[in-house]
Amino acid sequence: MLIDAPVHAVDPLLLAAGAALLGLLIGSFLNVVIHRLPRMLETEWRAQCEELAGREPAPAARYDLIAPRSHCPACQTPIRFLHLLPLLGWLLARGRCAACGVEIPTRYPLVEALTALLFALAALHFGFGWTLAAAMLVTAVLVALTFIDFDTQLLPDQLTLPLMWVGLAASLPAGRAPDALLGAMAGYLSLWSVYWAFKLVTGKEGMGYGDFKLLAALGAWLGWQALVPIVLIASVAGAVAGLALIARGDHARDTPIAFGPWLAIAGWLVMLWGEGLLPAFQRLLTGG
Ligand SMILES: [Zn+2]
After folding, report:
1. pLDDT tens-digit profile of 135-172?
2. Residue boundaries of the structural domains of the chain
3. DSSP assignment letter at 78
4. What is the pTM of this model?
5. Ligand 1 center–CA 109 separation, angstroms
6. How far is the CA of 103 from the centre of ligand 1 (A)?
């Protein structure tokens, strides 16, 4: 009987292809978030400073995630509809602005392709269902946070806090609210303690409050059990990358290295392959 057909009868490859297509579209929107959110925050902070100083903030043109339309950063020409298509638009325009010929950074198609790939992997791993929808949501926010932190050393509250609250809310119907609540609290407090210990010992700030909130959000989604693997993977990857940068002379020893991207990458890996990773970590820690 057709009615008894199980939900997982969706062809996995077809599902992955659909997820990749959705990933291209979402990735295209993430490009806008990555580019505009830090600028929106800066404008807001400037306006608040002006207000505090008792000055009238200068009126500015509308600038948010919707307006103005996507345009060439060099000649301001709005981008033609066909060239707005994710990935394909960039290929059609051969990576250049159609009006002035200035190169469009490969970052844009890269973010789209990356989001598509991560969505497809999540679809193959989780199959069709609510878990996949949740995994895509988490993936999208993590991609945006990773690039924003690389660019600006900021993890905006506008992304980390909703990610945490939605994670806590999603744990209720899934029947794992205690794990999620503990995960959020321990995630925040663990990095908060490291921050203060580091600051008291060295007088320097090793990371930012955004890092605590991001780990809290990951703890809310993945449970407290995921925190140790996430922090270990992120620390090792971050240290290796930091040493590589210092060795190449690209990075001064004293400037903090963005930890957020590594937390995000580690969190994503644990989200997909955590069940396999957790026992391995337990064996590693207990020497068993
Ligand atoms: Zn142009």
Report:
1. 999 999 999 999 999 999 899 999 999 999 999 999 99
2. 8-110, 129-288
3. B
4. 0.89
5. 17
6. 8
